[in-house]
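Entry type: protein chain
Record version: 2
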Amino acid sequence: MTLILAIKCKDGIVMASDGQATGMSTGGPIRQKCKKIFKLSEYVLLGASGTIGLIQRCRDSIGEYADKISRNGINFLIKDENILIRDKIRHIILSINKIEKDRHKTFYGKERGAPLADILLAFYDPKEDKFRIWHIAPDGGEEFLDELGYGCSGVGDTFAYAFLKNYYSENLSVNEGKIIAYRVIKDAIEIGAYGLGEPIDIWILKKGDKKSEGKIINRELSQDELMTLEDTYHIWRQGENIVFKKISGGRYGKAG
């Protein structure tokens, strides 16, 4: 299982995920560590929930068009096919999921329970000069979530949406977005949503400062940065407990 989230900030996008996958062996399902966020090009990040094999196929197929998105944006026309990159990617995802659904139905006699891949893309569109969050469902349906400000996919997404609704602001910086993203994933893991586990993975996509001449920064946070977020997470939780203990007159809450 998986929880992926993307948060649009005033200066970029933060994408985060848990780090556990459920794979199959001859003896049954097994837990394994798994990367769920992929850098497809300098401007494009992909996160996905679903079956590992399908995610890999979607990643590799979409990756063939990632450089074109980085250069020309999402609405670039592929002239030899007379189709927008946007629609081409939707068709790719639909096709991959449909093949798997048909295979599952042929083997088990029903579509229910078929492995699927649900895709979140975070990217910078150079033509529109803005960062965008794009959700593509297994049936090829799409929605741009940058106006909402955040998007989630996978088990625990209801919890994540509820948390983000309370804490999200369009004025968040990427540095603040990292803290919120870490908190959402960490809480989802600790609450015990089935199939979620550490390590937490966080990526940032943002414009650089004047020294980098505005070049897009697209990178994974280091272990040292994640450890700092872990410390900040505990300070945040501790502060909430202290405040609630005061509100309840000391009857409830814990300061640790």
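Comment: The first helix runs from residue 52 to 72.
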